[in-house]
Amino acid sequence: MLRARPAAMVRRIREFSDEVERETSRTPVICTTAHWWNTCTGSSRAFAARHALWPARYGAADPGALPAGWSTWTFWQYATTGGLPGDQDLFHGSSAGLERLARGQRSVPEPAIPPPFEPRHLPLETSGTRIRRSGHHKARPSSSSVHPGCLRSTCH
Known about the structure:
Helices cover about 25% and strands about 15% of the residues. Strand 1, helix 2 and strand 2 form a beta-alpha-beta unit. The protein is globular and about 40 Å long.
């Protein structure tokens, strides 16, 4: 496999993001790991100001170190299996915040979820909103996320 240079990867992500915005009038959420992002984009900070972050980190008490540029996360993929079908994800905020984001308004994450974090015991009203997400591995213009699995073959 060919390894894309960080500048080329950033350009590809920018082109994809711009296409999603043209087609949907929504800024895509970027779903990645800190390691993939920092390695494959050269620790780019180009997207953090406008794109919500959806880090993937499994079997941990919190999302851990975030990719370069982001100081907080909007969603967290904390497991690939569990009580809900598919990935297990948490929204960093209230139901109202999730609704704002779904309407296309950039949701500012609400107060942080204090560690230790146990996703399966988290009440909706106090610490976060569980969500169900499907089809996130498909990188199409109608998609709302950039997932590391979709881009991995161009980096490694």
